[in-house]
Amino acid sequence: MTENEISFYIRKSIFSVYNELGPGLFEKVYEKVLAYELASNGLNIQTQVSIPIKFKGTIIDSSFIADIIVENKVIIEIKSISEINNIHHKQLLTYLKLTGLKLGILVNFNTDYIDKSIIRKINGIIT
């Protein structure tokens, strides 16, 4: 399955979760329910994935945690905040750089308009 095909199922699952739960819950709730929904759609998912950081040729024990990785191809970064800021875009871009993955999805569930709160990041471009 390509990143674009996976992205279709991710968006579908995000809408399903949002329509059922609405805004205002903690990120951890959305993460667990979204992971369940994605797995229910037959997708291979990993949650709270610790990713080691390679620095100057050395693997550092410190690592970042990806909320959800789907099919080992797409990172989902989940937020439930008043608004997405530039730092959140940069955070996802850094995750993509460190993992070598091509597609990331930043989603903010704390919104009145979920369709405007799903942001694809590909090689540093917002689409």
Short description:
With 127 residues, this protein is α+β, with helices and mostly antiparallel strands. The protein has helices at 3-21, 27-40, 86-99; strands at 45-55, 58-70, 74-79, 103-108, 118-122, 125-126.
Tally the helices: what do you get? 3
CATH topology: Trna Endonuclease, Chain: A, domain 1
**Helix amount, in percent?**
25-40%
H and E string: HHEEEHEEE
List the uncertain runs.
Answer: none
Can you name the CATH architecture?
3-Layer(aba) Sandwich
Strand order of the largest sheet: 1-2-3-4-5-6
How many separate structural domains? 1
Which outline best applies? globular
* Percentage of β-strand residues: 25-35%
Average pLDDT works out at 92
CATH class: Alpha Beta
Total number of β-strand segments? 6
What structural category do the secondary elements indicate? alpha+beta
- Largest β-sheet summary: 6 strands, mixed
Radius of gyration: 14 Å
Q: Terminal Cα separation, in Å? A: 20 Å
